[in-house]
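Predict the structure of Tetratricopeptide repeat protein.
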Amino acid sequence: MYFCIGIHKRSCPYLENANLYSSASVTDDYETKAQQLLKDGKIDQAIAMYLCIKPESARILVIIGILYAEKKGDYKSAIIFYKKALKIQEKNGDDTSNTFTELGIAYQNLHEYDLALNYHFRALSIRKLAQTIDRKLIAGSLIGIANAYWGEQNL
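Done. Here is the predicted structure for Tetratricopeptide repeat protein.
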Protein backbone atom coordinates (compact mmCIF):
# COMPACT_ATOMS: atom_id res chain seq x y z
CA MET A 1 0.00 0.00 0.00
CA TYR A 2 2.72 2.51 0.93
CA PHE A 3 4.50 1.72 -2.30
CA CYS A 4 1.45 2.63 -4.36
CA ILE A 5 1.08 6.03 -2.72
CA GLY A 6 4.73 6.88 -3.12
CA ILE A 7 6.18 6.28 0.34
CA HIS A 8 8.78 3.90 -1.02
CA LYS A 9 11.08 3.50 2.00
CA ARG A 10 8.16 2.47 4.17
CA SER A 11 7.02 -0.09 1.59
CA CYS A 12 10.20 -2.19 1.56
CA PRO A 13 9.75 -3.87 4.97
CA TYR A 14 6.16 -4.78 4.13
CA LEU A 15 7.18 -6.22 0.78
CA GLU A 16 9.98 -8.18 2.45
CA ASN A 17 7.65 -9.59 5.11
CA ALA A 18 5.00 -10.47 2.54
CA ASN A 19 7.36 -12.89 0.80
CA LEU A 20 8.51 -15.72 3.06
CA TYR A 21 10.77 -17.31 0.43
CA SER A 22 14.55 -17.29 0.28
CA SER A 23 16.40 -14.03 -0.34
CA ALA A 24 17.06 -15.12 -3.93
CA SER A 25 13.34 -15.46 -4.61
CA VAL A 26 12.68 -12.14 -2.85
CA THR A 27 15.24 -10.51 -5.13
CA ASP A 28 13.68 -12.17 -8.17
CA ASP A 29 10.24 -11.05 -7.02
CA TYR A 30 11.36 -7.42 -6.62
CA GLU A 31 13.08 -7.51 -9.98
CA THR A 32 10.02 -9.01 -11.69
CA LYS A 33 7.81 -6.33 -10.12
CA ALA A 34 10.26 -3.61 -11.17
CA GLN A 35 10.29 -4.89 -14.74
CA GLN A 36 6.49 -4.86 -14.83
CA LEU A 37 6.45 -1.30 -13.50
CA LEU A 38 8.85 -0.33 -16.29
CA LYS A 39 6.55 -1.89 -18.88
CA ASP A 40 3.74 0.18 -17.39
CA GLY A 41 5.86 3.33 -17.71
CA LYS A 42 6.17 3.80 -13.95
CA ILE A 43 9.86 4.67 -13.86
CA ASP A 44 10.04 6.16 -10.36
CA GLN A 45 8.19 3.21 -8.85
CA ALA A 46 10.42 0.76 -10.73
CA ILE A 47 13.51 2.51 -9.37
CA ALA A 48 12.05 2.34 -5.86
CA MET A 49 11.41 -1.38 -6.29
CA TYR A 50 14.99 -1.97 -7.50
CA LEU A 51 16.22 -0.07 -4.45
CA CYS A 52 14.43 -2.59 -2.21
CA ILE A 53 16.69 -5.37 -3.48
CA LYS A 54 19.23 -6.32 -0.83
CA PRO A 55 22.09 -6.88 -0.79
CA GLU A 56 23.01 -4.30 -3.39
CA SER A 57 24.52 -5.81 -6.51
CA ALA A 58 26.51 -4.09 -9.22
CA ARG A 59 24.09 -5.36 -11.85
CA ILE A 60 21.06 -3.80 -10.15
CA LEU A 61 22.92 -0.54 -9.47
CA VAL A 62 23.85 -0.29 -13.16
CA ILE A 63 20.22 -0.91 -14.11
CA ILE A 64 19.14 1.91 -11.79
CA GLY A 65 21.81 4.16 -13.29
CA ILE A 66 20.60 3.38 -16.80
CA LEU A 67 17.03 4.19 -15.79
CA TYR A 68 18.10 7.56 -14.42
CA ALA A 69 20.15 8.29 -17.54
CA GLU A 70 17.96 6.96 -20.32
CA LYS A 71 14.45 7.31 -18.93
CA LYS A 72 14.78 10.42 -16.78
CA GLY A 73 17.75 12.26 -18.33
CA ASP A 74 19.19 12.60 -14.82
CA TYR A 75 22.85 11.92 -15.54
CA LYS A 76 24.12 13.10 -12.16
CA SER A 77 22.00 10.52 -10.35
CA ALA A 78 23.03 7.90 -12.91
CA ILE A 79 26.69 8.59 -12.17
CA ILE A 80 26.11 8.05 -8.45
CA PHE A 81 24.71 4.58 -9.11
CA TYR A 82 27.36 3.69 -11.69
CA LYS A 83 30.09 4.61 -9.21
CA LYS A 84 28.48 2.48 -6.49
CA ALA A 85 28.36 -0.41 -8.95
CA LEU A 86 31.97 0.20 -9.92
CA LYS A 87 33.11 -0.11 -6.29
CA ILE A 88 31.41 -3.48 -5.99
CA GLN A 89 32.80 -4.67 -9.33
CA GLU A 90 36.34 -3.62 -8.46
CA LYS A 91 36.08 -5.24 -5.01
CA ASN A 92 34.89 -8.51 -6.59
CA GLY A 93 37.32 -8.40 -9.52
CA ASP A 94 34.44 -8.24 -12.02
CA ASP A 95 34.56 -6.75 -15.51
CA THR A 96 34.12 -2.98 -15.22
CA SER A 97 34.20 -2.09 -18.92
CA ASN A 98 30.42 -1.71 -19.35
CA THR A 99 30.18 0.47 -16.26
CA PHE A 100 33.06 2.61 -17.53
CA THR A 101 31.19 2.98 -20.82
CA GLU A 102 28.00 4.05 -19.04
CA LEU A 103 30.00 6.58 -17.00
CA GLY A 104 31.56 7.90 -20.22
CA ILE A 105 28.15 8.36 -21.80
CA ALA A 106 26.75 10.07 -18.71
CA TYR A 107 29.66 12.51 -18.46
CA GLN A 108 29.42 13.20 -22.18
CA ASN A 109 25.75 14.13 -21.75
CA LEU A 110 26.82 16.52 -18.99
CA HIS A 111 29.38 18.04 -21.41
CA GLU A 112 32.23 16.91 -19.14
CA TYR A 113 34.26 15.60 -22.04
CA ASP A 114 37.56 15.04 -20.23
CA LEU A 115 35.85 12.69 -17.78
CA ALA A 116 33.90 11.05 -20.61
CA LEU A 117 37.11 10.37 -22.51
CA ASN A 118 38.79 9.02 -19.39
CA TYR A 119 36.06 6.43 -18.84
CA HIS A 120 35.77 5.49 -22.53
CA PHE A 121 39.54 4.94 -22.74
CA ARG A 122 39.44 2.82 -19.57
CA ALA A 123 36.68 0.68 -21.06
CA LEU A 124 38.64 0.33 -24.29
CA SER A 125 41.82 -0.76 -22.54
CA ILE A 126 39.95 -3.47 -20.60
CA ARG A 127 38.22 -4.70 -23.73
CA LYS A 128 41.48 -4.89 -25.67
CA LEU A 129 43.04 -7.03 -22.93
CA ALA A 130 40.09 -9.43 -22.58
CA GLN A 131 40.78 -13.12 -23.16
CA THR A 132 38.04 -13.21 -25.76
CA ILE A 133 38.15 -10.06 -27.84
CA ASP A 134 34.71 -8.77 -28.75
CA ARG A 135 35.10 -6.45 -31.70
CA LYS A 136 31.62 -5.00 -31.23
CA LEU A 137 32.47 -3.89 -27.69
CA ILE A 138 35.78 -2.43 -28.85
CA ALA A 139 33.95 -0.61 -31.64
CA GLY A 140 31.46 0.71 -29.07
CA SER A 141 34.32 2.11 -26.98
CA LEU A 142 35.88 3.73 -30.05
CA ILE A 143 32.53 5.28 -30.97
CA GLY A 144 32.21 6.63 -27.42
CA ILE A 145 35.68 8.17 -27.70
CA ALA A 146 34.86 9.66 -31.11
CA ASN A 147 31.58 11.10 -29.82
CA ALA A 148 33.29 12.68 -26.82
CA TYR A 149 35.94 14.28 -29.04
CA TRP A 150 33.23 15.48 -31.42
CA GLY A 151 31.18 16.94 -28.55
CA GLU A 152 34.25 18.67 -27.15
CA GLN A 153 34.95 20.32 -30.51
CA ASN A 154 31.36 21.49 -30.93
CA LEU A 155 30.91 23.34 -27.64
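The chain is about 75% helix and 0% strand.
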